[in-house]
Write a structure and sequence with these properties.
8% helix, globular, four-stranded antiparallel sheet, mainly beta
């Protein structure tokens, strides 16, 4: 498919190329290099990308249900979207928060969605129906993260008010309030249910006894804000990521540093372990997702395809796929199984659901007489996009949406 697409570009320089597939249309525009350049590298880079779900707002958080059937996203536009994880179709949208939803989590039994919002509230929703079960009030500033205990009876919430609160999920009562010296961005509970870890703006990772709320040890983990913390499935390893562009792995038995993972060139927003505990996925502000071998610290693979910061990453329960949420208003699903390179034989065209066109000089496009109304509209859109660019922009990235994922 990629070869055919490149051939079409070469054959149709300086004119509009319209490629029609069943139920799908891609519009591409190409001229000499001084005019337009269609970026085809993404088709090569995205070979592990299975599909892309387009939203109309930034995606701050993604979570996958234990049965592998449902994908949940928390969004900047105050909504929560609930998707069929297998088909990518939207089941329903939840509205109820009055500000951005920065974190979502699904309970271990798959029945409840917890959401944390900038409106200082936590809400618990019925996953099947989307109905509100209860609202948890108690924080005095943004709620940045939520996490369920393994038995689903306790919910932890991290807030900009310098606290983590532990809630009884059934009654909605506060069990413990854990005070910090700085705003708390992230929280995680170990799969064995013993330990809670919280990450702060002052670079510290705080380790707490979940049952009592007692502070066990503060870790001087990073020299910049901690963005994310996550436990391995056996509870033996804690990962912390930071604005300092590093990921650190800690031994949860003695809290000694195991190793530091370096390879990101931007703040690392989100980390998550694979279900088998062998791989760590990390998403950064620089649009990249890295996959790491936990035992060796080796960078296994870099997944590229997002156009803005990757805010959240989540493994599917079977460990075969990874979901990522981004500021580019998409959720992408990646094949991360050991044989991923052969599992996806040809790249989706395009996985990104968009075709990037970079305008380096004014197109000065005119309407050929034989253009139909649809193609003429595309010409108008590209010319208008060029005219509306800011003077500081030397070039303009113009993205044309695709109605449906394509395959060869």
């Amino acid at each position: 498919m990629l070869t055919k697409f490149k051939h079409l570009i070469d054959k149709n320089r300086a004119m509009l190329a319209v490629i029609v597939f069943p139920f799908s249309v891609i519009y591409g525009l190409s001229t000499l290099k001084s005019y337009l350049e269609i970026i085809t590298n993404n088709y090569i880079k995205n070979q592990q990308c299975i599909s892309s779900i387009k939203q109309k707002t930034w995606v701050y958080s993604v979570a996958i249900s234990p049965d592998n059937k449902t994908l949940v996203s928390g969004n900047y536009d105050k909504t929560i979207n609930v998707w069929n994880f297998r088909t990518g179709k939207l089941n329903y949208t939840i509205r109820g928060h009055t500000d951005a939803v920065e974190s979502v989590a699904v309970s271990p039994d798959g029945k409840i969605i917890a959401s944390g919002s900038w409106d200082k509230k936590i809400k618990l929703w019925d996953l099947k129906t989307g109905r509100l079960n209860q609202t948890l009030s108690g924080h005095s500033d943004y709620v940045k993260a939520v996490a369920f205990s393994p038995d689903g009876k306790t919910l932890a919430s991290a807030s900009w008010d310098k606290t983590v609160k532990l809630w009884n999920v059934e009654t909605g009562q506060i069990l413990h309030t854990l005070s910090h010296s700085a705003a708390v961005r992230t929280v995680a509970i170990s799969p064995d249910g013993r330990i809670l870890a919280s990450g702060c703006e002052d670079g510290k990772v705080m380790i707490w006894q979940l049952s009592t709320g007692e502070l066990k040890i503060p870790l001087a983990a990073h020299n910049q804000p901690v963005r994310s913390v996550a436990f391995s499935s056996d509870s033996h390893t804690l990962a912390s990521s930071s604005s300092d562009q590093t990921i650190k792995l800690w031994n949860s038995q003695n809290w000694q540093l195991l190793r530091t993972l370096q390879g990101h060139d931007q703040a690392v927003h989100s980390v998550v372990f694979s279900p088998d505990g062998k791989t760590l996925a990390s998403g950064d502000y620089g649009q990249k997702i890295h996959l790491w071998d936990i035992h060796t610290g080796q960078l296994l693979r870099t997944l590229q395809g997002h156009h803005q910061a990757v805010w959240s990453v989540a493994f599917s329960p079977d460990g075969q796929t990874l979901a990522s949420g981004s500021g580019d208003e998409t959720i992408k699903i990646w094949s991360v199984s050991p044989n991923a390179k052969t599992a996806v034989k040809t790249p989706s065209l395009p996985c990104a659901s968009e075709l990037e066109v970079v305008l380096t000089t004014q197109p000065e496009i005119t309407h050929p007489k034989n253009l139909n109304a649809l193609n003429r509209k595309l010409y108008d859109q590209i010319n208008q996009a060029w005219r509306n660019r800011t003077q500081s922009e030397e070039d303009l990235v113009y993205r044309v949406g695709v109605t449906r994922q394509l395959s060869s």
